[in-house]
Amino acid sequence: MIGLNHILLFLAVVSPLAVLARARRPDPSHRGWRVAAILVLSIAASSWLFFRNSAGYIAGGAWLALLFLPAVGLRRVADLTARQRFKSARKLAKGLQILHPSAELRQEVQLLRTLESRQDAGEFQNVPAPPAQDRHRNLRTSPAVLILILLNAAAFLFEIGHRQWQEPLGLHRLGALEPFFVVYRHEYWRLLTALFLHYDVVHLGFNLFALYVLGPPLERAIGAVRFVACYLISGLGSSVGVVALTRFHLAHADQLVGASGCIMGIVGAWAAFLLQHRHAALGRQRLTNVAMIVAIQVVFDLSTPQVSMAAHLSGLIAGFAIGLVLARKKISI
Q1: For 297, which of 91, 100, 131, 259 is 20 to 30 Å away at the CA?
Q2: Among residues 102, 260, 308, 314, which one is catalytic?
Q3: What does the mean pLDDT of the chain come to?
Q4: pTM greater than 0.70 (yes/no)
Q5: Tens digit of each residue's pLDDT (9 = 90 or more) over 99-111
Q6: Considering Cα of 149, then 150, then 154, then 155, what sign does the dihedral take?
Q7: DSSP code of 68?
Q8: What is residue 177's three-state secondary structure?
Q9: Which is it for the CA torsion 295, 297, 260, 178, positive or negative?
Q10: Is 260 a catalytic site residue?
C-alpha cells in the first residue's frame, strides 16, 4: 500500500523537474516558473532532510501553492479573457500574483485593466464573445469514461462494505489478482475482477483522476465502444503479463489490485495514435507529453517497491498494440 506522503513527495520532485525541462530555453516568460520550480525543489530537499516523516505533505503543499494552483488559475484567466470577462479575469490574475509574483503576470493584470476600461467605455459592445466552454464537457461527451469512473467507484463502495477489505485475505475473497491461483487453481476471473479493486481511497482517486484527464480525448477520437474495448483489453493484458512474468520468475507479485494497467493502456494507445499521426498539428508535442508520462511512471515504479512495474508495462504494451490497429482508420486526433 502506497502512502500519500510518498506520492506527494514524488510529485513535488518530478513536477518541478518537468517544469524546468520545459522552461530550459532562455525565454523571459519562463523565469517565474523556473523560480517557482527551484523553490519547490528546495523545500522538498529541506523537508526530506529535517522532517522526513512528513516531507511529502510539506513539499506537496509547496507544489500545490506554487505550481499547481497558479497553472490552473492562469488557464482560468485565459478562459475568462477569451469570453471578454475582463473584470473577473483581472481579479483572479491579481490574486494569483500572491502565489506567482512574476513580471509577466503583473503585465497581464495591467493589460486586463486596460481591456476592462475599454469594455466599460462600450468599445466591445458589437464584438460577439466566443461561446462559453462547458466545464463538464469532458464527461458529457465521454459517456464511456463516465461509466467506467462510476463502475470503479461503485466497486470500491462494495469493497469497503466487506470486513477486512484492506487485508490480503479480504482482497483475495473479493477477487485480487494472485498469479498462483490463476496458474494452479485456474481462477481466471481474477484477471478481470482485480481491475476494479483498489487498496484505499488514495489509490482509487489517483487512478480515476488519470482516467478523467487521459480518457475523454481518446474516447472522442475512437468512439465509446472502442474506448471500452481498449480499456478492458489493456487491463486484461496487464493482468496476463503479470501472471506470465511471475510464472517465469521475471517478476514477483503475490497480490495486485487496481485500474492502473488500464490507465497505462490508454497512454499506450495514445502513443500509437500520435506516432502514426506525428505530422498532424501538435502531434509531436503531444507525443512528447506521452513520452514524459511514461518516463515519470517508470521513475515512480522504480522508486516505489509497492508498485508493480510489470503490470504497468504490460498494460502500456497492450494499449500500444490496440492503438496501432485503431490508428489505421481515419480518426481525428
Answers
A1: 100
A2: 260
A3: 85
A4: yes
A5: 888 888 888 888 8
A6: negative
A7: I
A8: strand
A9: positive
A10: yes
Distance between CA atoms of residues 179 and 64, nearest Å: 39
- pLDDT tens digits, residue range 174-189? 999 999 999 999 999 9
Tell me the C-alpha distance between 208 and 16, whole Å: 23
Per-residue pLDDT tens digits for 283-304: 677 777 788 788 888 888 777 7
Dist CA 66 CA 302 (whole Å): 27
Supply 295's cell numbers. 518516463
Q: Is the dihedral of CA 213, 297, 198, 311 positive or negative?
A: positive
Which residue of the set 100, 198, 277, 312 is catalytic?
A: 312
Percent share of the chain, pLDDT over 90: 38
Mark out the alpha helices in the chain (DSSP H runs): 4-22, 31-50, 55-63, 69-82, 86-96, 103-120, 137-140, 143-160, 168-174, 179-184, 190-193, 201-222, 224-247, 260-276, 283-303, 309-326
Query: Of 61, 90, 65, 97, which is closest to residue 76 (Cα–Cα)?
Result: 90
8 Å CB contact between 229 and 144: no
Mean pLDDT of 47-54: 88
Residue carrying C-alpha cell 466487506: 162
Distance CA 162, CA 153 (A): 15
pLDDT at 134: 47
Q: How many CB atoms lie within 10 A of CB 229?
A: 15
Under DSSP, the state recorded for 67 is I
Which amino acid would we find at residue 225?
Answer: V
In whole angstroms, what is the distance from residue 51 CA to residue 55 CA? 5
Residues 31/32/33/34 CA torsion (nearest 10 deg): 50
